[in-house]
Amino acid sequence: MIVRSFESAANGMLALMDMNDNTANNLANVNTVGYKKGCLRFKDVMESAVYSQEGSVIRNNSSRYLGDISCGSQSMQYTHDFSQGALSKTSNPYDVAIEGDGFFKIQDADGNISYTRNGSFLVDRGYWLKTKQGEYVLDVNNRRIRMLPYDMEDETAFRDRKDIVIAENGNIEINSYNQKIPLQTIGVWDFSDKDDLFEIGDAKFVPRDRVNNPELRSEKYTIQQGMLELSNSNVIREMINTINTSRNYESLTRVVSTNSDMLSTAVSVGRLRT
Fold first, then answer.
1. Strands, DSSP E only, in 12-127?
2. Domain span at residue 173?
3. How would DSSP label each residue in 189-255?
């Protein structure tokens, strides 16, 4: 029984260490645009059936089942909470936020695709819409978005950035003096199984199984120009998690210490009897 207590406490301490690492990561990203807080799911390491002493070890009509006893828990799966983050106004026309479901689809220089809620974009010298890390933003047809009509070679089509208008459905237009020039439409994509998404850093995600969890066109969303979606990680809640994790870890430390004393006493008694 003492050995089982050691095992249960050790498993619990390892699980709490994983939880503390996850909380620290959430705290570190409270100011990361588009960040979705991480969540851990736990499972019991082993459950043993408990019967009354007069009952048989194997369940039968004469045994009295009392319940199960767990030998601790361990982290089973790391997922993300994709709930909506607060929207912050920036007044930058190239900043866009998704209100609702979905992700922006971006492509790096090597052609690798990822998905993000971070709509902090810019326009480079070639008038391509990009992320701050240099990835191209893709439209509904998986084309790179150019913030200038293809038949124009310079920026004389509009006077300043305020002439760029991005509608709630993602349509991009240039207010060029007395006319509106339509450009491309920002693509917003979603997945049926968000638990399958894997974070690769900088609030970017990729599906683990693209075959069974393909991208889908998002339907329930609006795009807000001049705004950014903030992290949905809450500082106060994560600090409370840190405190609770520390207290639980200290409790398990005392369990280990107490069982260690009991084991030492049992060993000493056994030596005296021999």
1. 38-44, 47-51, 65-70, 73-80, 87-89, 96-100, 103-107, 113-116, 121-123
2. 87-229
3. EE-S-GGGEEEEETTEEEES-TTTS--EE--SEEEEETEEEPP---HHHHHHHHHHHHHHHHHHHHH
Residue type, 142: N
Judgement on whether residues 36 and 60 belong to the same structural domain of the protein = yes
Work out how many domains the chain is built from and give that number.
2
Tell me the whole-structure pTM to 2 decimals: 0.79
33 and 52 fall within a common domain: yes
Residues 258, 126, single domain; the answer is no
CB–CB of 123/129 below 8 Å? yes
Residues 123 and 152 in one domain: yes
Per the CB < 8 A criterion, the answer to whether 231 and 82 are in contact is no
- Tell me the three state secondary structure of residue 273: helix
The pLDDT tens digits of the residues spanning 257-273 come to 777 777 677 666 655 55
Q: What is the pLDDT of residues 185-197, one digit of tens each?
A: 999 999 999 999 9
**Within this chain, do residues 160 and 111 fall inside the same structural domain, yes or no?**
yes
221 shares a domain with 107: yes
Type of residue numbered 12: G
Characterize 127-150 residue by residue with b for buried, 16 or more Cβ atoms within 10 angstroms of its Cβ, and e for exposed. bbbbbeeebbbbbbeeebbbbbee
Q: What is the DSSP string of 11-31?
A: HHHHHHHHHHHHHHHHHHTTT
Q: Please say whether the beta carbons of 227 and 90 come within 8 A.
A: yes
- Read off φ and ψ for residue 98, nearest 5 degrees: -95, 125
In this structure, the answer to whether residues 174 and 246 fall within a common structural domain is: no
Instruction: Kindly state whether residues 254 and 207 are assigned to the same domain.
Output: no
Is residue 256 classed as helix, strand or coil in its secondary structure?
helix
Answer with the residue of higher pLDDT: 52 or 168: 168
